[in-house]
Amino acid sequence: MGGYIVVSSITYAYKARDLLERKGCRVQVERAPKDLSRCGCHFLLLIRNCPLQQAIAVLDAAHIRIIKSGGDHYGLSG
């Protein structure tokens, strides 16, 4: 259970983290690696303890734009 979500800014990353943690997910925020984001300003949410589709639904309902998502931790530090 879990995965990763890339968002466009640190502001959206922290807002998303707070929303998801209120739903019981564990979330870690990191700068998105270059192979996930050619733009240096994107941030990565590492999602644990909840299904990725549930996390995406929460962020969609809050109008937080998702740049990219995936069903594993992409070999990252989560």
**CATH architectural category:** 2-Layer Sandwich
Distance between the termini: 12 Å
Shape: globular
User: What's the story with the biggest beta sheet?
Assistant: 4 strands, antiparallel
Can you say what the CATH homologous superfamily is? Answer: ACT domain
User: Runs with pLDDT <50, length 5+?
Assistant: none
Just give the CATH class: Alpha Beta
SS-based class: alpha+beta
* Strands, count: 4
Descriptors:
78 residues, alpha+beta, Alpha-Beta Plaits, four-stranded antiparallel sheet, 2 helices, 4 strands, 29% helix, globular
Question: Which helices and strands, and how do they pair?
Answer:
Blueprint: E1 2-7, H1 10-22, E2 26-31, E3 43-48, H2 52-61, E4 66-70
Antiparallel strand pairs: 1-3, 1-4, 2-3
Describe this structure in words.
It is a single chain. A four-stranded antiparallel beta sheet has the order 2-3-1-4, with helices on one face. It is of the alpha+beta class and 78 residues long. The chain has helices at residues 10-22, 52-61, and strands at 2-7, 26-31, 43-48, 66-70. The protein has one domain (2-70): Alpha-Beta Plaits (2-Layer Sandwich). The longest helix has 13 residues, at 10-22. It starts with a strand and ends in an 8-residue tail after the last strand. The relative contact order is 0.34. It has two helices and four strands, in the order βαββαβ.
